[in-house]
Every structure is written in structure tokens, then in C-alpha cells.
Amino acid sequence: MESVLEVKGLTKKYRRLTAVDHIDLSIEKGAVYGLLGPNGSGKSTTLGMLLNVINPTEGSFSWFDGKSSSQAALKRIGALIERPNFYSYMSAYKNLELVCKIKQIDTTNISDKLTLVGLGDRQHDAFKTFSLGMKQRLAIASALLNDPDVLILDEPTNGFDPQGILQIRQLIKDIAKSGTTVILASHLLDEVEKVCTHVLILQKGKMLYNGKVDELIASNGFFELKADDAEEMIKHLKLHNAFDKITETDGLYRVFFKDIITPSSLNYYLMQNGVSLSHLVFKKESLEEQFIQLTQA
Amino acid sequence: MIRLLKIELFKLWNNKLVKVLIFLYLGLLSLLALLTAVKFNIGLFTFDLAKEGIFDFPIVWKIAAFITAWFKVFLAIIIINSITMEYSGRTLKQNLIDGLSKREFLFSKFLAVVFFSLVATLFITVLSSLLGWIHSADYTMSEYFEGYIYMLGYLVKHIAFISFCMLLAFLIRKSALTLGLVFVWYVFEVIILLVIRWTFDMPELATELNHYLPLMSIYYLTPEPFSQLETAQQMGQAMGAEVNYDNGFGVKAFVTALLWIGVYLFLSFRLLKKRDL
């Protein structure tokens, strides 16, 4: 696989605070990478360093195997960070025209991209007359202007109404499908879960998890069980050849298996061994549960 | 280079405030032409500026440059405003993310400084030529071209002053405060010179230092021309004063200004490079 971004030991210190603490990251072409963490965990600082607006204290990174200078690399990237930043006195169209001049690309794309984000009929109005949602849409159009190889989005659904959020998520999925690498920072878990293939979890600048989303979310799921004779149930569960572990809270047992076990086969197995269940639920752990577990540890 | 200038002019030209300031500025420069009509009547004595020879070549160059150089503060305001707005609107951050380097950003601003200075110089060159052609009775070509060196001084003075304002704008990042600091700095230079001259009683050092301080030194690029007028010289001689022709204009003034411009660029770049956005 072609590497899009390599990050080694990236660190940013502000006086007492270490905002980003030795992050290592490798992003391959076509991945949709989620940067997940609570407010103030260092997501935006990390992206700021990758985008050359914040000077790293330590560490290094290189875009596209280091084949192009970071300036040339930035021209192949589309980025939307925190808040939309445009010239308030210029129209949407003129603002994008300026971006084209900076990126040294043709202006023919502008109207298409504005239409794509639903700003087609407002393109000649001044930026200052836009609502937050419209400003955000313009920022997305701007990020897509050069048909980027990498799209960086920091809290992309901020300021959107519910329909807007759905539209933008669909847009991100469509863009990802077309093979564009996406890096998405968010504190919204379901956003990352719904859109991303990989996730990097940050807390206080430290990396807590870095890998595939579905490896983080235990893919085999688990069972919630109750039986009148709990001891007998536990004894037979432990004898099951795919048994992994069991935990108990308030008389409710959580059982994890190493393989995929269907609820009916588990029920059948226990019945055969003379254990009758009073409660059987098959569950998949959500990213949210994983995230809370990780960040509490 | 051209690309960077185009980017900056695109930003400026779409801003109504900038357009208004530019037209105001050019309007004020044109007002100079009205000076031709000035005639004072003091009793029996008529003072007609045009007849005093202020529009003769080559002195018209010096007078036009000396008077209109004060208006450069308009151009400085445009540049200060354009820089501070990039900070307040966070568009500087966006420009960098879009792929402009910090060096390119600084140069796009500096090229705008040079561009505006060139426009001002060209405008005043044309204006002085017109006034001279209309009012000079007779002149030689060498007298006409002699003035071009003063236009070069005019150009360098503008670049130096506006670059100084550019540096302060990068430092302060707020327009009103930046303009205030330019004024404070000017007063600071004046006080320093006065202190050296009177408190420490070292007038030679003060006179010498005058040629090197950032704002004082550029004065010598468009020196005061009136003492060279015949009337002034006659009056001076009548009162028994020595007429001093050395007005400080010369290679030293150019070199000093160019060195300062280099310093302003270097420091602006350091500020831009070191700060996180």
C-alpha cells in the first residue's frame, strides 16, 4: 500500500502543557482515519502541525513518502479546520478564486463544488452574509476544490442542522469511496464509527489506541446471561472450547468468546448440559463503550 | 513573484475600503496641482507661487516629492490593515493551509508595498512633469532628468516607511495599535535625539544619528527644498545667514534606507516563522 502520511514522535509543548505527546501514525492511501478524543485532547494541534501552521516541538512527519516538499504536498490536500476562515468582504466565488490562485489550479471547478455543497445560488453573495452552516459548506467546497488526494476535516459537522449533518456524512462517505484518503477529527463517536475505517484515540495529547475501528470494537460481540443455577452455568461455559472470559455485574454475566457463536447455538449447548437460562442477550460493544473504557483507564 | 503580487492585489482590490483609500490618496496627490493657483496678496507685494519658480525644473521634483511624501501614511494604512485583517479573520492560517508558505505570504505583502510605492512614484513623476512643462519657461533636458534621482529617493522612502509599518503590523496584529505605535516610535526617535543634543550636550552625535534612525533617516531621501528657492536665498543673504546647500540627500541616505528595509523584512519573517497560528 502507498503511504500517504508518516508521523514519528510528533510532540507539541506549550510551557507547562504538553498538548501532543509523541504521536506515531501511518496512514495509507484510501483509509478513512478518525482522530477521536475529548475536547482539548490535542486533535486540532496535531492537525495544525501536519498542516504547517503550528511548529512542532519535537518529531517529524512527511506527506506522500516525502516525495514532495510540504508546500507542494499541501496543494494536494484539502483541509477544513475548526472554524471557516475566509475574507468577509469577498463573495463565496471570489474566495474560492483566491484559493485557486494559491493552489495554482484552474478556476473551472468553482461553480460545480459550490453546487455540490448546496451554495450554488448564493455564490455571489458576500461571505459575511452567510450563516455558520453556510460558512462551513463553503469551507468544504474550498477543501474539495483541488480534488484532493487527502481530505482533512476537523469537526466537519459543527454548526449544521440535522439534515446538514446527514448530507455532509454522505458527502464524506462518497468522497472516501472515490479513493480519497480522509482524516477526520471529531469528538462525536458515532460520527467516527459510521464513517471511519481506522481510528486514533487521543487523551491529553497521548495516544491511547491506534488501529482499525472494527478491531477496537470487539467484533465477536458478547452475551449477557442469567441462570437460576449460576455456578453450573459458569462451569459449563468455561468448558466451551471457544470460551474467552466472563465478568459479573449485579447477577448479570457477560461472556466473551474467541469465535463467533450464535445465540441459538449457545442456548442449545447449555440446554444439553442441563442449564436453563432466564436471560440471554447478544450484544456488540459500541465504540462509545470502548472509548469510555479507554479514556477512563 | 508575479503570482504572489497577483494574489495580494486580488485580496486588496476586492476590498471597498482599500479602493476608497487609494482614490483618496491619488486625489490628495492631485491637489498639489492646485498649488499653481496660489497667489498671496500682502499689501502691494504679490506672492505668486508659480512665479517664484517652484514649478521650474529641477526644483519642482524636490518640492513635489517633499510635500506629497507626507501622504504615504494612506498607503501604510492599507498595508497595515491588510496584514492585521489576515490575523483577525484567521485567513493567514487558511492561506498557509491552502499551500502558501510563510515566505511567500511575507513576499506577497512586501510586493504590494513595492507596487504601491511604484504607483505613487509614477503618479508624482507624471504630475511633476506636467507642472514643470506648463510652468517652466525654458529648461534643458539634463535639468529635466536631474529630477529623476529625487523620484528614486521618493520610491525608496515609501518602501522603507511602509515596510516599517508592515513589520509593526506583523508584531502587533491590531490596526489601531499598530498605527499608534508608528506614531509613538516617531516621537521616541525625536525624544532620543533631543536628549542626546540637550541633556548630554552632544549635538554632533545627534546630527549624525539623525541619518541612521529608522524614521529620521528616510527624511533625507526627500529633503526640504524651499531653502534652495531664490527668494529664500535672497532673504537668507539679506539676514546674513549662511545658506547651507547640504541637505543630506545622497548615497548614504539610500544605503541606510535599503539596509533598514532588509532588517524589516528579516524581522517580519522571523516573527511569522516562529509564531504558531
What is the structure about, briefly put?
Chain B: One of its GO terms (cellular component) is plasma membrane. By secondary structure, chain A is an alpha/beta fold. Helix content of chain A is 34%, strand content 30%.
Structure notes:
The complex is a heterodimer of chains A (297) and B (277). With 297 residues, chain A is an alpha/beta fold. Chain A folds into two domains: 3-216, Rossmann fold (3-Layer(aba) Sandwich), CATH 3.40.50; 222-296, Alpha-Beta Plaits (2-Layer Sandwich), CATH 3.30.70. Helix content of chain A is 34%, strand content 30%. A six-stranded mixed sheet of chain A has the order 5-6-7-3-8-9, with helices on both faces. In chain A, strands 11-12-10-13 form a four-stranded antiparallel sheet, with helices on one face. A three-stranded antiparallel sheet of chain A has the order 2-1-4, covered by helices on one side. Chain A is elongated. The two termini of chain A are 34 Å apart. Chain B has one domain (2-274). Chain B contains 13 helices and two strands; from the N terminus they run H-H-E-E-H-H-H-H-H-H-H-H-H-H-H. A two-stranded antiparallel ribbon of chain B has the order 1-2. In chain B, helix 4 runs antiparallel to helix 6. Chain B is globular, with a radius of gyration of 21 Å. Chain B starts with a helix and ends with a helix. The A-B interface holds A 48, 51-55, 71-72, 74-75, 77, 79, 81, 83, 85-90, 94, 97-99, 101-104, 142 and B 3, 6-7, 10-11, 14-17, 85, 89-91, 93-101, 274, 276-277. Chain B: Pfam families: ABC2_membrane_2 (PF12679).
